[in-house]
Amino acid sequence: MKPEKIYNKMCPCGCFDLIQDQEIDFIKEFKHWFLALNHRQGFLGKCLLILKAHKTDEIEMTDEEILEKHKIYCLWWKAVDKSFKPDKINQAQLGNEEYVHKGHLHCHFVPRYRRPIEFEGVKFQSDTPETQKLSYSRLPKSIIHPLKIRRRIKEELLRYL
What we know:
This protein is α+β, with helices and mostly antiparallel strands. It has 5 helices and 7 strands, in the order H-H-E-E-E-H-E-H-E-E-E-H. It has a single domain (3-158), classed as HIT family, subunit A (2-Layer Sandwich). The chain has helices at 6-10, 22-25, 63-84, 98-101, 147-158, and strands at 26-29, 33-37, 47-51, 88-92, 106-112, 117-119, 122-124. The model has no long low-confidence stretch (mean pLDDT 87).
């Protein structure tokens, strides 16, 4: 299997075949979920938790899937805290982009910084008094960072996962 099709190993339905840079952004596989670095970092350490099964709403999830989601969030939270020391964490589960992944529930884990934050010589988004009051979905879209930077962010998180 080619590395760029790593998601196909976990979700053989093919829903993620068109997603680029899978070998860079994939972080860790779990029984029901996989954790991936969001290609649009913006806030340093921003990740996606993606359910392997075709389910579009939390009401469809099993107790086992829900419990594992919570455990993964706690693992990620500790890893991002040790790696980057965010001031706050946002979680989002909007479900507005089902057309992209054809119905795989996913959650956004977004570290927020109330101070300037830099990693590997790159400045990442931090909150101003104005943006601090906005929900994640209302913030301007962030840039896609180079593969080299995303690889280093992933390596840093994996030190603690």
